Amino acid sequence: MSAPLLRLTGVGEGIEISIETTLRGADSPAKVADSILQLFPEFPIPSDCVEPKLGQGSNYNWKATQIDLTHFLKLLHQQRILDTALDAMSKNLQNRTTVFELSRQAALAGKVAFPLPNEIPLGGVFTITLASDDLGDWLEAATWHSGRDSVPRTIGDDNTMNADGEAATWI
What we know:
Layout lengths: L15 E10 L3 H11 L18 E8 L4 H9 L3 H9 L6 E7 H5 L16 E7 L3 H8 L29
Antiparallel strand pairs: 1-2, 1-4, 3-4
């Protein structure tokens, strides 16, 4: 019998976690709240936000730190997008910090989607910043799956997606 998989959460593991999103114009605080809670159920939703109306749009910046990543990481496993997640979450890894974005519209449906570089998808994005001295190792562990026993993956390897988001071809 194999040992149970280690499930990482980010909290209490030396990872600094920041989740942020900006609401502008016609962005509905209620829909953005529904969206972010699909991925990060512990995100504290500000209570002072009102729905936009004609002549008075949204203008809010929501930010929270040290939010548990358990549900988000579980979704990556359930949706079987662990290699994509490793690539997208490590693409901007520099020193001890990485920044990546998630589609708010996809999150509303309970899905994790990483927008292509330099594109802002319909519905906006959540910006996630992670920082830690051993962040690369943590990202590889958080996105590990048994397929890596036969096709090993590491950050920046030859199987990393191309800069335009296209998949690298495995030979």
